[in-house]
């Protein structure tokens, strides 16, 4: 800048003029406008903050809670199932279910490989599953792991991997009680057996709690309990686990020995109707379901109905004794060992000739039973069976129970009346059969069956007189001492029983070489404590009669059972009496 320019600038400042044309002064009103806008904006912002914090703080609280506060479900502990002595049959144990948020999971193959190895899964399979669920926020990694392996997975601290505590059902007796107790599914709801029948009672009611979580979904702290979990109720069964083990062992040995298709055993308390043991084969292990055979799921004692055959003869005989036309010593001519009724040939295994009614039971004479049935009113035997609730549900509420069938007696032919007297033409399950026999062991009063432990004998209903019941016990004793049930005898105990061998029905009628071997035993005969029904389905080989296949099972099971139940002998042993 030269001297002339400096002089001009100095003069301009003294006179209040701009030094140049681009140095004009900013208007005051514009500055005030800008400051006013800033002040108003700040006032609005401060006012909004005060309003939200003081007058409408619930909004901010709700927005914050929606991101950090969660309501978690608290699983209810499923009730325990135990035997009559308190031995556990089904218990719940704590487990951990691992789940993940696929959106949070890392994409690094190395971390996913570590995760897969810790889970015991193939890395490629796990990665493929994660890729298929990347647009979701939830997927299971592994259900119901034991706590220690699950902890090892969580300790990897992989983003998006979480754990939840649950309960898993464990069955201490395994396959010995599986069809009766049943099992639960992956969500711990009853799926089979009593687990299904009493699912609502066993399940309980889940609880809820409000918790604070961080942005990764990890629990920071419990805030408060909304509702406590209410554990499920406990169920005490009527069975004795000791008797169940005993029955399972002996039944399995017999099914294996005779290469049978299946087997069933029911032991019932003679004076209460409580089921003390209930076994079906084949069975399955509910703790390892990887190779469960569907055939093993059936509790055949209740789900399978079958023609019982000659084990019905004592029950049918009660109609003859009650009528007054027949007594245990009433003579009956069964010669020549066969007869034709309505064009249908009825046979005995041989010609037994002259028998009394006791002998008809002793030798299981179809001819003797037919003569008795045809001498009674048309519906006499049907009325006895119907009064015993055959063909009706047992009332146990067991899933899939078969009620059996008892056809109406109207317009029955003589042949139908005859076959009904020796156990053909109707069907029932093993529990129904055992329950019917409580009428004989309980002075003529039949008791309803029970799978739950009772505090006393339930109220029954009378189906025959006490005199008839006592006579039938004595008649059935001869089956063991002089008839085909000798292999059911017990050392030191009097036994009453009845054998039965039934031809199985096929697509074209009764089969020539397929049988069901049955036996019903009562012990001790002087004061009955147990009734045992045994049914072996389709034994292979030369031995298929009930007295040869099923009766020995009774001898091995009932003898030990009476000793376990502390029932005193009612007969001197052969060694003590000097007999042979």
From TrEMBL:
Subcellular compartments: Cell inner membrane; Membrane
Primary location: membrane
Pfam families documented for this protein: PBP_dimer (PF03717), Transpeptidase (PF00905)
Domain Penicillin-binding protein dimerisation: 74-222
Catalytic activity: Preferential cleavage: (Ac)2-L-Lys-D-Ala-|-D-Ala. Also transpeptidation of peptidyl-alanyl moieties that are N-acyl substituents of D-alanine
E.C. numbers: 3.4.16.4
Segments of skewed composition (Basic and acidic residues): 1-17
Region (Disordered): 1-21
TM region positions: 31-51
Presence of keyword Cell membrane: yes
Topological category with respect to the lipid bilayer: Single-pass membrane protein
Gene3D superfamilies: 1.10.150.770, 3.30.450.330, DD-peptidase/beta-lactamase superfamily, Penicillin-binding protein 2a (Domain 2)
Ranges of residues in domain Penicillin-binding protein transpeptidase: 263-557
Record key words, sorted: Carboxypeptidase, Cell cycle, Cell division, Cell inner membrane, Cell membrane, Cell shape, Cell wall biogenesis/degradation, Hydrolase, Membrane, Peptidoglycan synthesis, Protease, Septation, Transmembrane, Transmembrane helix
Keyword Mitochondrion on entry: no
Pathway assignment: Cell wall biogenesis; peptidoglycan biosynthesis
Active site: 310
Family: Belongs to the transpeptidase family. FtsI subfamily.
Function: Catalyzes cross-linking of the peptidoglycan cell wall at the division septum.
Name by which UniProt lists this protein: Peptidoglycan D,D-transpeptidase FtsI
Biological source species: Kushneria aurantia
């Amino acid at each position: 800048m030269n001297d002339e320019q400096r002089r001009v600038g100095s003069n301009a400042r003294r006179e209040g003029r701009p030094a140049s044309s681009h140095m004009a002064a900013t208007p005051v009103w514009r500055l005030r406008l800008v400051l006013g806008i800033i002040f108003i904006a700040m006032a609005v912002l401060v006012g909004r903050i005060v309003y939200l914090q003081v007058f409408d703080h619930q909004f901010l609280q709700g927005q914050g809670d929606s991101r950090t506060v969660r309501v978690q479900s608290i699983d209810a502990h499923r009730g325990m199932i135990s035997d009559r002595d308190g031995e556990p049959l089904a218990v719940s144990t704590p487990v951990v279910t691992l789940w993940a948020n696929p959106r949070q999971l890392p994409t690094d193959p190395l971390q996913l490989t570590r995760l897969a190895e810790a889970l015991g899964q193939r890395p490629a399979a796990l990665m493929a599953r994660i890729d298929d669920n990347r647009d979701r926020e939830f997927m299971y990694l592994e259900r119901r792991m034991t706590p220690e392996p699950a902890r090892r997975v969580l300790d990897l601290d992989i983003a998006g991997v979480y754990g939840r505590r649950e309960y898993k059902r464990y069955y201490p007796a395994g396959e010995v009680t599986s069809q009766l107790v049943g099992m639960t599914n992956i969500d711990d709801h009853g799926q089979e057996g009593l687990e299904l029948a009493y699912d609502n009672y066993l399940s309980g009611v889940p609880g809820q709690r409000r918790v604070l979580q961080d942005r990764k979904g990890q629990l920071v702290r419990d805030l408060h309990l909304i509702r406590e979990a209410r554990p499920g109720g406990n169920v005490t069964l009527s069975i004795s686990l000791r008797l169940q083990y005993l029955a399972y062992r002996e039944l399995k040995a017999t099914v294996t020995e005779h290469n049978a298709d299946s087997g069933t055993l029911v032991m019932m308390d003679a004076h209460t109707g409580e089921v003390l043991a209930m076994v079906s084969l084949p069975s399955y292990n509910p703790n390892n379901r990887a190779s469960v055979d569907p055939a093993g799921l059936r509790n055949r004692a209740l789900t399978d109905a079958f023609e019982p055959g000659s084990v019905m003869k004592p029950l049918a005989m009660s109609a003859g004794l009650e009528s007054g036309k027949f007594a245990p010593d009433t003579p009956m001519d069964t010669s020549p060992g066969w007869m034709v009724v309505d064009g249908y040939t009825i046979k005995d295994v041989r010609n037994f000739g002259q028998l009394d009614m006791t002998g008809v039971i002793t030798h299981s004479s179809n001819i003797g039973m037919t003569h008795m049935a045809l001498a009674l009113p048309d519906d006499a035997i049907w009325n006895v069976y119907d009064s015993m609730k055959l063909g009706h549900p047992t009332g146990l509420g067991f899933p899939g129970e078969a009620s059996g069938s008892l056809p109406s007696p109207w317009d029955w032919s003589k042949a139908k009346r005859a076959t009904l007297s020796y156990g053909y033409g109707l069907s029932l399950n093993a529990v129904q059969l055992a329950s019917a026999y409580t009428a004989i062991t309980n002075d003529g009063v039949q008791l309803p069956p029970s799978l739950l432990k009772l505090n006393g004998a339930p109220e029954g209903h009378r189906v025959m007189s006490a005199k008839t019941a006592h006579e039938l016990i004595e008649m059935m004793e001869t089956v063991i001492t002089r008839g085909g049930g000798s292999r059911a005898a017990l050392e030191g105990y009097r036994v009453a029983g009845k054998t039965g061998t039934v031809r199985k029905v096929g697509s074209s009628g009764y089969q020539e070489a397929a049988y069901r071997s049955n036996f019903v035993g009562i012990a001790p005969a002087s004061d009955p404590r147990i009734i045992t029904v045994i049914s072996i389905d389709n034994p292979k080989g030369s031995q298929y009669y009930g007295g040869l296949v099923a009766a020995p099972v009774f001898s091995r099971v009932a003898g030990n059972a009476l000793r376990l139940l502390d029932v005193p002998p009612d007969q001197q042993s052969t060694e003590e009496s000097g007999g042979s």
